[in-house]
Amino acid sequence: MKFRGVPASAGVGVGPVVRLEHEELLVRDAAVPGAQAAAEMERFQQACVAARADLLTIRDKIARELSPNEAAIYDAHLMILDDPELLGAVERDVRERHRNAAAAYRDAMSGYAARLGSVQVEHLRERHADILDVERRVLRHLLGVQPGHTLAPGVPCVLIAHDLAPSEVALLDRELVRGFVTEVGSRSSHGAIVARGRGIPAVVGCRGILQHVREGTQAAVDGFVGTVELDPDEDTRTFFAARRVRIEEESRELLTIQSEPAVTKDGRRVDLGANIELPGEVERALSVGADGVGLFRTEFFYLDRHQLPSEEEQTEAYRRVLEQMQGKPVIFRTMDLGGDKVASYLQLTHETNPFLGHRGIRFALAHPEIFRAQLRAIYRASAHGRARIMFPMVSSQAELRRANALCEQVRDELARARVPHDPEVEIGMMIETPSAVWMADVLARETKFFSIGTNDLTQYTLAMDRDNERLAHLYEPLDPAILRSIRHTVTVGHDGGIWVGVCGEMAGDPRTAVLLLGMGVDELSVACFDLPRVKAAIRNVRCADARRAASEALDQSSADDVKAVLAERIEPMLPKYLLTQGEKP
Ligand code: PEP
Ligand code: MG
To answer: Which of 78, 217, 332, 366 is deepest in the core (most CB within 10 A)?
Structure first.
Protein backbone atom coordinates (compact mmCIF):
# COMPACT_ATOMS: atom_id res chain seq x y z
CA MET A 1 0.00 0.00 0.00
CA LYS A 2 1.41 3.35 -1.01
CA PHE A 3 0.65 6.74 0.54
CA ARG A 4 1.40 10.11 -0.89
CA GLY A 5 2.14 13.09 1.31
CA VAL A 6 4.21 16.22 1.16
CA PRO A 7 7.96 15.74 0.72
CA ALA A 8 9.36 17.57 3.73
CA SER A 9 12.98 16.47 4.02
CA ALA A 10 15.08 14.87 1.27
CA GLY A 11 16.42 11.33 1.61
CA VAL A 12 15.13 7.78 1.70
CA GLY A 13 14.82 5.19 4.44
CA VAL A 14 13.37 1.77 5.09
CA GLY A 15 12.66 0.10 8.40
CA PRO A 16 10.08 -1.37 10.73
CA VAL A 17 7.42 1.10 11.77
CA VAL A 18 7.30 2.50 15.26
CA ARG A 19 3.93 4.15 15.86
CA LEU A 20 4.45 7.19 17.95
CA GLU A 21 1.38 7.52 20.03
CA HIS A 22 1.42 9.70 22.99
CA GLU A 23 1.26 7.84 26.24
CA GLU A 24 -2.05 7.83 28.04
CA LEU A 25 -1.54 10.24 30.86
CA LEU A 26 -4.31 9.21 33.14
CA VAL A 27 -5.17 12.13 35.34
CA ARG A 28 -7.70 11.40 38.06
CA ASP A 29 -9.46 14.00 40.10
CA ALA A 30 -8.63 13.61 43.78
CA ALA A 31 -9.32 15.71 46.83
CA VAL A 32 -6.27 17.19 48.56
CA PRO A 33 -6.94 18.15 52.16
CA GLY A 34 -5.91 21.67 53.11
CA ALA A 35 -3.06 20.38 55.29
CA GLN A 36 -1.46 18.71 52.25
CA ALA A 37 -1.92 21.62 49.85
CA ALA A 38 1.60 22.95 50.42
CA ALA A 39 3.15 19.55 49.72
CA GLU A 40 0.99 19.15 46.63
CA MET A 41 2.11 22.53 45.35
CA GLU A 42 5.72 21.57 46.10
CA ARG A 43 5.33 18.44 43.93
CA PHE A 44 3.82 20.51 41.17
CA GLN A 45 6.65 23.03 41.32
CA GLN A 46 9.22 20.25 41.17
CA ALA A 47 7.52 18.86 38.07
CA CYS A 48 7.73 22.31 36.49
CA VAL A 49 11.42 22.54 37.41
CA ALA A 50 12.07 19.14 35.81
CA ALA A 51 10.10 20.11 32.69
CA ARG A 52 12.13 23.31 32.52
CA ALA A 53 15.37 21.33 32.73
CA ASP A 54 14.19 19.08 29.83
CA LEU A 55 13.34 22.09 27.72
CA LEU A 56 16.64 23.82 28.39
CA THR A 57 18.54 20.66 27.40
CA ILE A 58 16.59 20.37 24.16
CA ARG A 59 16.97 24.05 23.44
CA ASP A 60 20.75 23.92 23.87
CA LYS A 61 21.01 20.84 21.69
CA ILE A 62 19.07 22.55 18.90
CA ALA A 63 21.04 25.76 19.30
CA ARG A 64 24.26 23.77 18.89
CA GLU A 65 23.04 21.64 16.00
CA LEU A 66 20.98 24.20 14.12
CA SER A 67 20.86 27.79 15.26
CA PRO A 68 19.86 29.93 18.23
CA ASN A 69 16.97 31.19 16.16
CA GLU A 70 15.62 27.69 15.66
CA ALA A 71 16.07 26.99 19.36
CA ALA A 72 13.73 29.90 20.09
CA ILE A 73 10.79 27.48 19.61
CA TYR A 74 11.66 26.20 23.07
CA ASP A 75 11.64 29.69 24.50
CA ALA A 76 7.99 29.69 23.49
CA HIS A 77 7.52 26.44 25.45
CA LEU A 78 9.30 27.94 28.43
CA MET A 79 7.00 30.93 28.31
CA ILE A 80 3.95 28.66 28.36
CA LEU A 81 5.50 26.78 31.27
CA ASP A 82 6.04 30.01 33.19
CA ASP A 83 2.71 31.63 32.31
CA PRO A 84 1.67 33.26 35.62
CA GLU A 85 -2.03 32.98 34.81
CA LEU A 86 -1.84 29.24 34.36
CA LEU A 87 0.29 28.78 37.46
CA GLY A 88 -2.05 31.01 39.47
CA ALA A 89 -5.06 28.97 38.35
CA VAL A 90 -3.42 25.75 39.54
CA GLU A 91 -2.46 27.28 42.87
CA ARG A 92 -6.00 28.55 43.47
CA ASP A 93 -7.47 25.18 42.58
CA VAL A 94 -5.11 23.33 44.91
CA ARG A 95 -5.23 25.70 47.87
CA GLU A 96 -8.82 26.95 47.70
CA ARG A 97 -10.72 24.16 45.98
CA HIS A 98 -8.63 21.31 47.42
CA ARG A 99 -8.01 19.71 44.03
CA ASN A 100 -4.96 17.69 43.07
CA ALA A 101 -2.34 19.57 41.03
CA ALA A 102 -2.41 17.20 38.02
CA ALA A 103 -6.15 17.63 37.50
CA ALA A 104 -5.93 21.38 38.10
CA TYR A 105 -3.06 21.73 35.60
CA ARG A 106 -4.77 19.54 33.00
CA ASP A 107 -7.92 21.67 33.21
CA ALA A 108 -6.06 24.96 33.09
CA MET A 109 -4.08 23.84 30.04
CA SER A 110 -6.97 22.26 28.21
CA GLY A 111 -9.07 25.40 28.66
CA TYR A 112 -6.23 27.38 27.11
CA ALA A 113 -5.61 24.83 24.34
CA ALA A 114 -9.31 24.46 23.50
CA ARG A 115 -9.61 28.16 22.92
CA LEU A 116 -6.81 27.98 20.36
CA GLY A 117 -7.56 24.55 18.90
CA SER A 118 -10.95 25.52 17.57
CA VAL A 119 -9.71 28.39 15.44
CA GLN A 120 -9.20 27.98 11.74
CA VAL A 121 -5.90 29.74 11.61
CA GLU A 122 -2.87 27.56 11.08
CA HIS A 123 -0.41 29.40 13.29
CA LEU A 124 -2.79 29.28 16.24
CA ARG A 125 -3.30 25.60 15.72
CA GLU A 126 0.48 25.21 15.82
CA ARG A 127 0.53 27.02 19.15
CA HIS A 128 -2.08 24.53 20.24
CA ALA A 129 0.42 21.72 19.57
CA ASP A 130 3.03 23.58 21.62
CA ILE A 131 0.64 23.84 24.57
CA LEU A 132 -0.14 20.13 24.47
CA ASP A 133 3.58 19.40 24.34
CA VAL A 134 4.23 21.43 27.50
CA GLU A 135 1.21 19.95 29.27
CA ARG A 136 2.36 16.39 28.59
CA ARG A 137 5.85 17.20 29.74
CA VAL A 138 4.74 18.60 33.11
CA LEU A 139 2.17 15.86 33.70
CA ARG A 140 4.70 13.15 32.89
CA HIS A 141 6.94 14.46 35.67
CA LEU A 142 4.05 14.99 38.04
CA LEU A 143 2.70 11.48 37.50
CA GLY A 144 6.12 9.83 37.28
CA VAL A 145 5.39 8.46 33.78
CA GLN A 146 8.24 7.74 31.37
CA PRO A 147 7.89 9.11 27.82
CA GLY A 148 5.65 6.59 26.01
CA HIS A 149 7.76 5.91 22.99
CA THR A 150 11.18 4.76 23.85
CA LEU A 151 12.85 3.46 20.74
CA ALA A 152 14.62 0.14 21.01
CA PRO A 153 18.32 0.97 21.29
CA GLY A 154 20.32 0.25 18.17
CA VAL A 155 17.32 -0.75 16.01
CA PRO A 156 16.68 1.38 12.92
CA CYS A 157 13.05 2.34 12.38
CA VAL A 158 10.56 4.53 10.55
CA LEU A 159 8.47 6.66 12.89
CA ILE A 160 4.85 7.30 12.06
CA ALA A 161 2.82 9.75 14.11
CA HIS A 162 -0.24 11.90 13.80
CA ASP A 163 1.96 14.88 14.49
CA LEU A 164 5.45 15.34 15.82
CA ALA A 165 6.33 18.27 18.00
CA PRO A 166 9.59 19.95 17.04
CA SER A 167 10.98 18.98 20.43
CA GLU A 168 10.37 15.34 19.50
CA VAL A 169 12.05 15.70 16.11
CA ALA A 170 14.95 17.40 17.84
CA LEU A 171 15.53 14.38 20.05
CA LEU A 172 15.36 11.73 17.33
CA ASP A 173 18.52 9.75 16.80
CA ARG A 174 19.35 10.52 13.22
CA GLU A 175 21.33 7.32 12.76
CA LEU A 176 18.45 5.11 13.86
CA VAL A 177 15.45 7.00 12.62
CA ARG A 178 15.51 6.19 8.93
CA GLY A 179 12.57 8.46 8.23
CA PHE A 180 9.51 9.92 9.77
CA VAL A 181 5.99 10.38 8.57
CA THR A 182 3.17 12.46 9.97
CA GLU A 183 -0.50 12.64 9.11
CA VAL A 184 -0.64 16.41 9.34
CA GLY A 185 1.71 19.29 8.66
CA SER A 186 3.21 21.11 5.73
CA ARG A 187 6.73 21.77 4.48
CA SER A 188 6.86 24.86 6.63
CA SER A 189 5.68 23.25 9.87
CA HIS A 190 8.24 23.38 12.65
CA GLY A 191 8.79 19.65 12.67
CA ALA A 192 9.57 19.63 8.94
CA ILE A 193 12.07 22.46 9.30
CA VAL A 194 13.86 20.76 12.16
CA ALA A 195 13.93 17.48 10.15
CA ARG A 196 15.52 19.19 7.16
CA GLY A 197 18.07 20.87 9.37
CA ARG A 198 18.94 17.49 10.93
CA GLY A 199 18.96 15.55 7.65
CA ILE A 200 16.20 13.06 8.55
CA PRO A 201 14.10 12.02 5.52
CA ALA A 202 10.49 13.04 6.14
CA VAL A 203 7.05 12.96 4.55
CA VAL A 204 4.31 15.02 6.17
CA GLY A 205 0.59 15.44 5.53
CA CYS A 206 0.09 11.68 4.92
CA ARG A 207 -3.58 11.65 5.81
CA GLY A 208 -5.03 8.57 7.44
CA ILE A 209 -1.86 6.49 7.36
CA LEU A 210 -2.12 5.50 11.04
CA GLN A 211 -5.34 3.63 10.32
CA HIS A 212 -3.48 1.32 7.98
CA VAL A 213 -0.19 0.74 9.67
CA ARG A 214 0.72 -1.68 12.42
CA GLU A 215 3.75 -1.56 14.64
CA GLY A 216 6.62 -3.47 13.06
CA THR A 217 5.30 -3.29 9.47
CA GLN A 218 8.09 -2.41 7.07
CA ALA A 219 7.84 1.04 5.52
CA ALA A 220 9.85 2.71 2.76
CA VAL A 221 9.95 6.49 3.04
CA ASP A 222 10.88 8.64 0.07
CA GLY A 223 11.43 12.20 1.25
CA PHE A 224 12.24 13.35 -2.30
CA VAL A 225 8.83 12.73 -3.80
CA GLY A 226 6.76 12.41 -0.62
CA THR A 227 5.73 8.76 -0.69
CA VAL A 228 5.49 6.05 1.95
CA GLU A 229 5.15 2.43 0.91
CA LEU A 230 3.89 -0.01 3.54
CA ASP A 231 4.94 -3.61 3.36
CA PRO A 232 7.14 -3.03 0.33
CA ASP A 233 8.10 -6.22 -1.49
CA GLU A 234 11.56 -7.62 -1.10
CA ASP A 235 12.78 -5.95 -4.30
CA THR A 236 11.62 -2.51 -3.22
CA ARG A 237 13.21 -2.96 0.19
CA THR A 238 16.50 -3.97 -1.27
CA PHE A 239 16.25 -1.15 -3.77
CA PHE A 240 15.60 1.44 -1.06
CA ALA A 241 18.34 0.17 1.22
CA ALA A 242 20.84 0.20 -1.65
CA ARG A 243 19.65 3.62 -2.66
CA ARG A 244 20.24 5.01 0.79
CA VAL A 245 23.76 3.66 0.86
CA ARG A 246 24.35 4.95 -2.66
CA ILE A 247 23.02 8.43 -1.84
CA GLU A 248 25.34 8.62 1.14
CA GLU A 249 28.34 7.43 -0.85
CA GLU A 250 27.56 9.76 -3.71
CA SER A 251 27.09 12.70 -1.38
CA ARG A 252 30.56 12.03 -0.01
CA GLU A 253 32.04 11.60 -3.48
CA LEU A 254 30.30 14.66 -4.84
CA LEU A 255 32.01 16.73 -2.22
CA THR A 256 35.25 16.23 -4.12
CA ILE A 257 34.02 18.86 -6.59
CA GLN A 258 33.07 21.12 -3.70
CA SER A 259 35.66 23.74 -4.51
CA GLU A 260 35.29 23.49 -8.30
CA PRO A 261 33.12 25.99 -10.17
CA ALA A 262 29.77 25.10 -11.76
CA VAL A 263 31.06 25.36 -15.30
CA THR A 264 29.98 23.45 -18.40
CA LYS A 265 32.38 21.46 -20.56
CA ASP A 266 32.35 24.28 -23.10
CA GLY A 267 33.14 26.90 -20.51
CA ARG A 268 29.79 28.46 -19.52
CA ARG A 269 29.89 29.40 -15.85
CA VAL A 270 26.69 29.33 -13.79
CA ASP A 271 26.47 30.90 -10.36
CA LEU A 272 25.30 28.19 -8.03
CA GLY A 273 23.82 29.45 -4.79
CA ALA A 274 22.28 27.73 -1.78
CA ASN A 275 18.77 28.23 -0.43
CA ILE A 276 18.70 28.54 3.32
CA GLU A 277 15.93 29.05 5.84
CA LEU A 278 17.94 29.64 8.98
CA PRO A 279 21.19 31.44 9.72
CA GLY A 280 22.60 28.18 11.14
CA GLU A 281 22.51 26.57 7.68
CA VAL A 282 25.27 28.77 6.32
CA GLU A 283 27.99 26.34 7.32
CA ARG A 284 26.30 23.60 5.36
CA ALA A 285 25.98 25.92 2.34
CA LEU A 286 29.72 26.49 2.46
CA SER A 287 30.55 22.86 3.01
CA VAL A 288 28.62 21.76 -0.09
CA GLY A 289 30.50 24.30 -2.19
CA ALA A 290 27.93 27.06 -2.80
CA ASP A 291 29.04 30.21 -4.62
CA GLY A 292 26.85 32.19 -2.27
CA VAL A 293 23.39 32.18 -0.73
CA GLY A 294 20.94 32.66 -3.58
CA LEU A 295 17.88 32.71 -1.36
CA PHE A 296 17.81 33.35 2.35
CA ARG A 297 14.16 32.96 3.34
CA THR A 298 14.36 35.49 6.14
CA GLU A 299 10.72 35.11 7.16
CA PHE A 300 11.65 32.09 9.25
CA PHE A 301 13.29 34.60 11.51
CA TYR A 302 9.85 36.03 12.25
CA LEU A 303 8.10 32.75 12.96
CA ASP A 304 8.04 30.64 16.13
CA ARG A 305 8.27 33.56 18.45
CA HIS A 306 6.09 35.88 20.45
CA GLN A 307 7.30 39.22 19.26
CA LEU A 308 8.99 40.86 16.34
CA PRO A 309 12.73 40.41 16.11
CA SER A 310 14.39 43.73 16.87
CA GLU A 311 16.50 45.56 14.33
CA GLU A 312 19.56 44.83 16.51
CA GLU A 313 18.84 41.12 16.62
CA GLN A 314 18.39 40.97 12.87
CA THR A 315 21.50 43.02 12.19
CA GLU A 316 23.54 40.64 14.33
CA ALA A 317 22.15 37.52 12.63
CA TYR A 318 22.60 38.90 9.12
CA ARG A 319 26.08 40.16 9.96
CA ARG A 320 27.11 36.70 11.18
CA VAL A 321 25.80 35.13 7.97
CA LEU A 322 27.71 37.61 5.81
CA GLU A 323 30.91 37.19 7.78
CA GLN A 324 30.69 33.42 7.60
CA MET A 325 30.21 33.60 3.84
CA GLN A 326 33.55 35.43 3.58
CA GLY A 327 32.78 37.78 0.76
CA LYS A 328 30.47 35.44 -1.14
CA PRO A 329 27.14 37.11 -1.94
CA VAL A 330 24.06 36.53 0.19
CA ILE A 331 20.63 37.36 -1.20
CA PHE A 332 18.36 38.33 1.66
CA ARG A 333 14.85 37.75 0.43
CA THR A 334 12.86 40.26 2.45
CA MET A 335 10.09 38.92 4.66
CA ASP A 336 7.70 36.75 2.65
CA LEU A 337 5.11 36.65 5.42
CA GLY A 338 1.45 35.87 4.94
CA GLY A 339 0.07 32.91 2.99
CA ASP A 340 1.15 29.92 5.07
CA LYS A 341 3.88 31.80 6.94
CA VAL A 342 2.22 33.63 9.76
CA ALA A 343 3.19 34.56 13.29
CA SER A 344 0.58 35.08 15.96
CA TYR A 345 1.97 38.41 17.20
CA LEU A 346 1.41 39.93 13.74
CA GLN A 347 -2.32 39.54 14.35
CA LEU A 348 -3.21 38.97 10.73
CA THR A 349 -6.85 38.96 9.94
CA HIS A 350 -8.47 35.87 8.49
CA GLU A 351 -8.36 35.68 4.70
CA THR A 352 -10.36 33.35 2.49
CA ASN A 353 -7.47 32.95 0.05
CA PRO A 354 -4.30 33.74 1.99
CA PHE A 355 -2.02 32.87 -0.93
CA LEU A 356 -3.83 35.48 -2.99
CA GLY A 357 -4.00 37.84 -0.08
CA HIS A 358 -1.80 39.95 2.08
CA ARG A 359 1.43 38.14 1.34
CA GLY A 360 5.06 38.86 0.50
CA ILE A 361 5.79 42.42 -0.60
CA ARG A 362 2.13 43.41 -0.09
CA PHE A 363 2.37 42.54 3.57
CA ALA A 364 5.74 44.31 3.90
CA LEU A 365 4.49 47.50 2.27
CA ALA A 366 1.41 47.49 4.46
CA HIS A 367 3.67 47.32 7.54
CA PRO A 368 6.40 49.82 6.68
CA GLU A 369 7.70 49.98 10.25
CA ILE A 370 8.38 46.22 10.27
CA PHE A 371 9.76 46.29 6.74
CA ARG A 372 11.98 49.29 7.44
CA ALA A 373 13.52 47.60 10.49
CA GLN A 374 14.46 44.62 8.32
CA LEU A 375 15.90 46.78 5.56
CA ARG A 376 17.91 48.77 8.08
CA ALA A 377 19.24 45.53 9.54
CA ILE A 378 20.28 44.22 6.10
CA TYR A 379 21.97 47.52 5.21
CA ARG A 380 23.75 47.70 8.55
CA ALA A 381 24.96 44.13 8.14
CA SER A 382 26.07 44.92 4.57
CA ALA A 383 29.13 46.67 5.99
CA HIS A 384 30.43 43.18 6.85
CA GLY A 385 30.09 41.29 3.58
CA ARG A 386 28.38 41.15 0.22
CA ALA A 387 24.66 41.56 0.80
CA ARG A 388 21.94 41.67 -1.80
CA ILE A 389 18.26 42.37 -1.25
CA MET A 390 15.38 40.71 -3.06
CA PHE A 391 11.64 41.37 -2.83
CA PRO A 392 9.16 38.46 -2.95
CA MET A 393 5.79 38.26 -4.73
CA VAL A 394 6.07 41.54 -6.63
CA SER A 395 3.12 41.90 -8.97
CA SER A 396 3.39 45.48 -10.23
CA GLN A 397 5.76 48.33 -10.97
CA ALA A 398 4.12 50.36 -8.18
CA GLU A 399 5.09 47.74 -5.58
CA LEU A 400 8.66 47.60 -6.83
CA ARG A 401 8.91 51.38 -6.78
CA ARG A 402 7.58 51.63 -3.24
CA ALA A 403 9.97 48.96 -2.02
CA ASN A 404 12.91 50.58 -3.81
CA ALA A 405 11.93 53.95 -2.33
CA LEU A 406 11.93 52.49 1.16
CA CYS A 407 15.46 51.17 0.56
CA GLU A 408 16.53 54.61 -0.56
CA GLN A 409 15.05 56.20 2.56
CA VAL A 410 16.87 53.69 4.73
CA ARG A 411 20.16 54.38 2.96
CA ASP A 412 19.66 58.14 3.48
CA GLU A 413 18.85 57.68 7.16
CA LEU A 414 21.92 55.54 7.70
CA ALA A 415 24.16 57.91 5.75
CA ARG A 416 22.91 60.90 7.74
CA ALA A 417 23.53 59.06 10.99
CA ARG A 418 26.94 57.91 9.70
CA VAL A 419 26.06 54.27 10.25
CA PRO A 420 28.40 52.05 8.23
CA HIS A 421 26.66 50.27 5.36
CA ASP A 422 27.16 49.46 1.70
CA PRO A 423 25.12 51.95 -0.34
CA GLU A 424 25.67 49.83 -3.46
CA VAL A 425 23.82 46.74 -2.22
CA GLU A 426 22.25 45.20 -5.33
CA ILE A 427 18.47 45.13 -5.14
CA GLY A 428 16.57 42.55 -7.14
CA MET A 429 13.15 41.00 -7.17
CA MET A 430 11.53 37.61 -7.52
CA ILE A 431 9.47 36.71 -10.52
CA GLU A 432 6.66 34.67 -8.99
CA THR A 433 3.48 36.07 -10.47
CA PRO A 434 2.25 36.01 -14.07
CA SER A 435 1.91 39.80 -13.95
CA ALA A 436 5.61 40.13 -13.09
CA VAL A 437 6.47 37.85 -16.04
CA TRP A 438 4.51 39.97 -18.48
CA MET A 439 5.80 43.26 -17.05
CA ALA A 440 9.36 41.98 -16.77
CA ASP A 441 10.63 44.38 -19.46
CA VAL A 442 9.30 47.32 -17.44
CA LEU A 443 10.45 45.92 -14.09
CA ALA A 444 13.95 45.19 -15.45
CA ARG A 445 14.51 48.94 -15.77
CA GLU A 446 14.13 49.40 -12.03
CA THR A 447 15.89 46.42 -10.56
CA LYS A 448 19.34 44.81 -10.68
CA PHE A 449 18.34 41.15 -11.05
CA PHE A 450 15.46 38.73 -11.31
CA SER A 451 15.25 35.44 -9.45
CA ILE A 452 12.41 33.28 -10.69
CA GLY A 453 10.49 31.59 -7.88
CA THR A 454 9.12 28.66 -9.82
CA ASN A 455 7.28 27.23 -6.80
CA ASP A 456 4.93 30.17 -6.67
CA LEU A 457 5.10 30.95 -10.37
CA THR A 458 3.75 27.44 -11.05
CA GLN A 459 1.01 27.83 -8.46
CA TYR A 460 -0.12 31.21 -9.79
CA THR A 461 0.29 30.46 -13.49
CA LEU A 462 -1.55 27.16 -13.37
CA ALA A 463 -3.96 28.38 -10.65
CA MET A 464 -2.93 25.32 -8.66
CA ASP A 465 -2.37 25.40 -4.88
CA ARG A 466 1.21 24.22 -4.26
CA ASP A 467 0.33 22.68 -0.88
CA ASN A 468 -2.81 20.83 -1.94
CA GLU A 469 -2.00 17.12 -1.95
CA ARG A 470 -5.03 16.47 -4.18
CA LEU A 471 -3.47 18.58 -6.92
CA ALA A 472 0.06 17.32 -6.44
CA HIS A 473 -0.08 15.27 -9.67
CA LEU A 474 -1.19 18.33 -11.67
CA TYR A 475 1.09 20.95 -10.15
CA GLU A 476 3.81 20.83 -12.80
CA PRO A 477 6.72 23.25 -13.22
CA LEU A 478 7.49 21.56 -16.55
CA ASP A 479 4.21 22.73 -18.01
CA PRO A 480 5.00 24.62 -21.23
CA ALA A 481 3.23 27.67 -19.75
CA ILE A 482 5.92 27.82 -17.07
CA LEU A 483 8.77 27.21 -19.50
CA ARG A 484 7.51 30.01 -21.74
CA SER A 485 7.24 32.31 -18.72
CA ILE A 486 10.83 31.55 -17.76
CA ARG A 487 12.05 31.99 -21.31
CA HIS A 488 10.27 35.33 -21.61
CA THR A 489 11.69 36.55 -18.30
CA VAL A 490 15.23 35.55 -19.26
CA THR A 491 14.99 37.23 -22.66
CA VAL A 492 13.61 40.53 -21.46
CA GLY A 493 15.84 40.52 -18.39
CA HIS A 494 18.91 40.14 -20.60
CA ASP A 495 17.59 42.74 -23.03
CA GLY A 496 17.28 45.07 -20.07
CA GLY A 497 20.87 44.33 -19.04
CA ILE A 498 20.20 42.38 -15.83
CA TRP A 499 20.98 38.83 -14.75
CA VAL A 500 18.28 36.24 -14.21
CA GLY A 501 18.34 33.34 -11.75
CA VAL A 502 15.96 30.60 -10.63
CA CYS A 503 15.55 29.75 -6.96
CA GLY A 504 12.45 27.53 -6.95
CA GLU A 505 12.70 23.77 -6.29
CA MET A 506 12.82 23.18 -10.04
CA ALA A 507 16.44 24.33 -10.10
CA GLY A 508 17.40 21.53 -7.69
CA ASP A 509 16.78 18.61 -10.07
CA PRO A 510 19.85 17.92 -12.24
CA ARG A 511 17.68 17.46 -15.36
CA THR A 512 15.71 20.66 -14.99
CA ALA A 513 18.83 22.53 -13.90
CA VAL A 514 20.35 21.67 -17.30
CA LEU A 515 17.13 22.70 -19.02
CA LEU A 516 17.25 26.07 -17.23
CA LEU A 517 20.89 26.49 -18.17
CA GLY A 518 19.90 25.87 -21.80
CA MET A 519 17.22 28.52 -21.46
CA GLY A 520 19.90 31.07 -20.64
CA VAL A 521 19.48 31.34 -16.88
CA ASP A 522 22.58 32.89 -15.25
CA GLU A 523 22.21 31.67 -11.70
CA LEU A 524 20.61 28.73 -9.93
CA SER A 525 19.91 28.59 -6.22
CA VAL A 526 19.04 25.22 -4.72
CA ALA A 527 18.71 23.37 -1.41
CA CYS A 528 22.06 22.38 0.11
CA PHE A 529 21.25 18.70 -0.37
CA ASP A 530 20.76 19.19 -4.13
CA LEU A 531 23.68 21.53 -4.73
CA PRO A 532 26.49 19.02 -5.35
CA ARG A 533 24.27 17.06 -7.77
CA VAL A 534 23.33 20.15 -9.74
CA LYS A 535 26.98 21.18 -9.88
CA ALA A 536 27.98 17.73 -11.14
CA ALA A 537 25.24 17.92 -13.80
CA ILE A 538 26.44 21.29 -15.05
CA ARG A 539 30.03 20.09 -15.18
CA ASN A 540 28.98 17.11 -17.28
CA VAL A 541 27.18 18.90 -20.11
CA ARG A 542 28.02 21.28 -22.91
CA CYS A 543 26.04 24.49 -22.86
CA ALA A 544 25.45 24.28 -26.60
CA ASP A 545 23.75 20.87 -26.14
CA ALA A 546 21.69 22.18 -23.24
CA ARG A 547 20.55 25.07 -25.43
CA ARG A 548 19.42 22.73 -28.20
CA ALA A 549 17.52 20.56 -25.72
CA ALA A 550 15.88 23.63 -24.17
CA SER A 551 14.82 24.94 -27.52
CA GLU A 552 13.20 21.61 -28.32
CA ALA A 553 11.49 21.54 -24.89
CA LEU A 554 10.10 25.00 -25.53
CA ASP A 555 8.47 23.77 -28.73
CA GLN A 556 6.35 21.20 -26.88
CA SER A 557 2.69 21.57 -26.09
CA SER A 558 2.37 19.54 -22.88
CA ALA A 559 4.36 18.73 -19.75
CA ASP A 560 4.50 15.08 -20.81
CA ASP A 561 6.10 16.06 -24.09
CA VAL A 562 8.59 18.26 -22.24
CA LYS A 563 9.44 15.31 -20.00
CA ALA A 564 10.01 13.18 -23.08
CA VAL A 565 12.50 15.75 -24.35
CA LEU A 566 14.26 15.69 -20.97
CA ALA A 567 14.44 11.90 -21.14
CA GLU A 568 15.71 11.82 -24.73
CA ARG A 569 17.97 14.82 -24.84
CA ILE A 570 19.13 15.72 -21.35
CA GLU A 571 19.26 12.47 -19.40
CA PRO A 572 21.75 10.83 -21.80
CA MET A 573 24.17 13.70 -21.13
CA LEU A 574 24.16 13.07 -17.38
CA PRO A 575 25.90 10.42 -15.32
CA LYS A 576 23.35 7.79 -14.33
CA TYR A 577 23.75 8.28 -10.60
CA LEU A 578 22.37 11.80 -10.90
CA LEU A 579 19.11 10.52 -12.28
CA THR A 580 18.04 7.89 -9.82
CA GLN A 581 17.81 9.60 -6.46
CA GLY A 582 14.23 10.82 -6.76
CA GLU A 583 12.16 7.96 -8.02
CA LYS A 584 12.28 4.29 -8.58
CA PRO A 585 13.77 3.67 -12.02
C1 PEP B 1 9.36 30.13 -4.95
O2 PEP B 1 8.19 30.50 -4.81
O3 PEP B 1 9.76 29.47 -5.91
C4 PEP B 1 10.35 30.46 -3.91
C5 PEP B 1 11.63 30.18 -4.08
O6 PEP B 1 9.90 31.02 -2.75
P7 PEP B 1 9.14 30.18 -1.60
O8 PEP B 1 9.28 28.72 -1.92
O9 PEP B 1 9.80 30.56 -0.32
O10 PEP B 1 7.74 30.69 -1.72
MG1 MG C 1 7.71 32.03 -3.36
So the answer is: 332
